[in-house]
Amino acid sequence: MKDSRSHSGLPFMKMHGAGNDFVVIDARRTDRPVTAALARALADRNRGVGFDQLAVIHPTEDADFRLQFLNSDGSEAGACGNATRCVSDFILRESGAEATTLRTSRGLLHARRRSDGLVSVNMGAPMTEPAQIPLVPVNDVLHLPLEGDPVAIGMGNPHCIFFVPDAESVDVARDGAAIEHHPLFPEATNVEFASVIGPDRLRMRVWERGAGITLACGSGTCATAVAAHLRGLTGRRVTVEVDGGTLEIDWRDDGVWMTGPTAHVFDGVLTPDFLDRVG
Predict the structure, then answer these.
(1) Do the beta carbons of residue 55 and residue 68 sit within 8 Å?
(2) Which residues are known to be catalytic?
(3) In 108, 116, 225, 229, which residue has its Cα 20 to 30 A from 38's Cα atom?
(4) Residue 107 sits in the same domain as residue 158
């Protein structure tokens, strides 16, 4: 007898920010739970939809909306800056407002539309204490005891940033995977490889925890810009070239602001048969 739990399909949106792509589910309009199993099934680029992260919009009383993030392996992500910008763009268009507030596990965040139409989000203050990142106790987060002398920065999730002569020549799949689950990082880590290519301009490539190589990583771009300034390589306002485009980072007194392109690619509906197979 056919499982009748799914009586109708589940609407979703496909979005991307600088090539960092997402499936977005608006849980304000459905009571179907979004599970790790559903995230894994949706992430399959051959049998599902395909994404780097799944973003789920929830109602909340202390902000305009709350965002939950799941990686393609079904694990939870504490922050996802590009998805935050994409969903904020959707919310701003829906409301007609120029600014919005949202809650993530990072805390209460603010997003706004600039005069040029791009959406900026304040990703909050960077974390440099090992317990906050999280990182096992070390003498100096700006010089980790690893080959390559990386930096550890927290932006709601952990980041390990390597400054290299040429980011293009790095084997990101090999080197990123080797560091993701290093014992220094008790909750694993995102891994960034960056090189200085001009005044206040960086080239960055990324291996994301739970997702692998992606074309961009918003929180990783913020962490890399912070690390570059703390290392004395750049100022506090940096342009970062990622595989999928360009992001602007501005580390201000109130937090790290990130600005870049967003795209709402298409809307779709997951069929009842697909949802029933997921369970």
Answers:
(1) yes
(2) 80, 217
(3) 108
(4) no
